[in-house]
Every structure is written in structure tokens, then in C-alpha cells.
Amino acid sequence: MMLSLKGVKKSFGGKKESIEVLKGVDFSVQKGETVAIMGPSGVGKSTLLHIIGGLLKPDSGEIEIEGTNISVFTEEETDLFRNKTIGFVFQHHYLLSEFNALENVFVPALLSKKKKEAETKAEELLKSVGLWERKRHYPSELSGGEQQRVAIARALINSPKLLLADEPTGDLDEATSISVFELLRSLAEKENLTLLMATHNKNLAERCDRILFLHNGKIIEN
After folding, report:
1. Cβ(58)–Cβ(8) under 8 Å?
2. Which CATH number fits domain 33-57+73-209: 3.40.50.1820, 3.30.70.1350, 3.40.50.300, 3.60.10.10?
3. Which of 60, 114, 195, 208 is deepest in the core (most CB within 10 A)?
């Protein structure tokens, strides 16, 4: 088992106007699975991924990744675990405009690797996403699809076991969306990663191994 959630709850706001977004989420994902999470905007898909990735603390419940309960970690422990185990791909690429593609990919690895080692790994990843010849280009010189490919390479730089993708193709046209998703999936298979993706795109969701629906604060299996 790669991922297991039990009774995960999350609310926002004060006591008088608290909004319960997650109302006891339970589900599990096996190692190597590609799983889509679907649901309308505002239902809490991003919140759920952020909690799984340790970017948000749940109000209650347990999140286990490979048997490790990360919900009891301190902030420092969470940061260390996330850096070694989890990769993120977001809808908005969040590339650093002052850095070229190669630099954007290897910067997250500098905490754990020497610069030369990080740069070599980044070059390999840019080759794998088809951007070797664009490695010295800056984000403003890349198309939306190319920027997302850089973001995917960046997410893999620390060799994560779990890849979380939050609407990774939301800003792209349909043809580019399919291309980016297929790249994500092929890389996940190649690296033996578990992929959990939040998406509105039914076409992409149906290409995954399973589809989970987030409805009224809980997960419903298709």
C-alpha cells in the first residue's frame, strides 16, 4: 500500500462560520497505481491533495504513506519527508522567471545533492520530457505545454515515490492536455511511481486505473 487515508476531516473559517470541506475521507491507493480524483470546483480536491502532501494539516484523521503516519509529524519532519517522498505538479507551473528550464528543474535538489549531481539529473529529466534542446530557455520563451513539462521534470528531481498532480492540464488545450498526461503516466510507469491526479477532465480521468469522486466531503469510488 502506498497511500491510506482514514477519517480525514478539514474545515476552514472560525467557529461561528466554519465550513467543513472534508467530512471524513477514507480511501487507499496501491503502489504503482494511477488514480484520478474528480469533482466540481470548490469541492475540496486541492485541499485533499495539499493534506496528503503535507502542505496542510488535517483537523483529524490519519494519512499514511508506505505505512508512515505523516499526520502526527512536526512541520520540520513533514518537510523532510515530503522532500524525499512526494513530488507535486500544479495547474499553474510556478516556474521561477529568472531561471532557465534546467535551473528550474535542479534547484529543488540542491538541499540534498551537490550542484553538479543535481544538474546532471536535471539534464536527464529534461531529455525524458523532450526538452533537452530548450534547457537554456526561460519560462517566458516556452509554451504552456513546455512549461508544464519543465514542472513535471522538477517534480521528479528528488526521485519521489508518490506524485501528486493538481489539475496539471487545466491551463492547456485538449491535445496538449492529453500529451502532458500521457507523459506523466509514462514517466510514472518508468519510475514505478504512484500517481494521484485531481482533474475536471473526464477524458483524462478515464485513462487512469481508477476514478474517485469527491462529493459532499467524502470519497465515492466509481
Report:
1. yes
2. 3.40.50.300
3. 195
Residue 161 CA neighbour count, 13 Å, CB half: 12
DSSP tag of 43: S
Q: For residues 73 and 78, give the distance between their C-alpha atoms in angstroms, rounded to a whole number.
A: 6
- Amino acid letter, 116: K
Q: Where would I find the beta strands (DSSP E) of the chain? A: 3-12, 19-29, 34-38, 60-65, 68-69, 86-90, 162-166, 194-198, 210-215, 218-221
What is the C-alpha to C-alpha distance for residues 28 and 64, in angstroms, rounded to an integer? 9
Which grid cell sits at 105? 528543474
DSSP-derived pairing of the beta strands 210-215 and 218-221: antiparallel
Residue type, 59: D
Rounded (5°) CA angle 200-96-100 = 110
Q: Residue 19 pairs with which residues in a beta bridge? A: 12
* Distance, CA of 84 to CA of 160 (rounded, Å): 6
For residue 44, what are the CA distances in angstroms to 20, 120, 136, 197?
Answer: 10, 38, 37, 13
Whether pLDDT at 113 is above 80: no
How confident is the model over 126-164, as pLDDT tens digits? 999 999 999 999 999 999 999 999 999 999 999 999 999
User: pTM of this prediction?
Assistant: 0.92
So what's the pLDDT on residue 205?
Answer: 93
3-state DSSP assignment of residue 212: strand
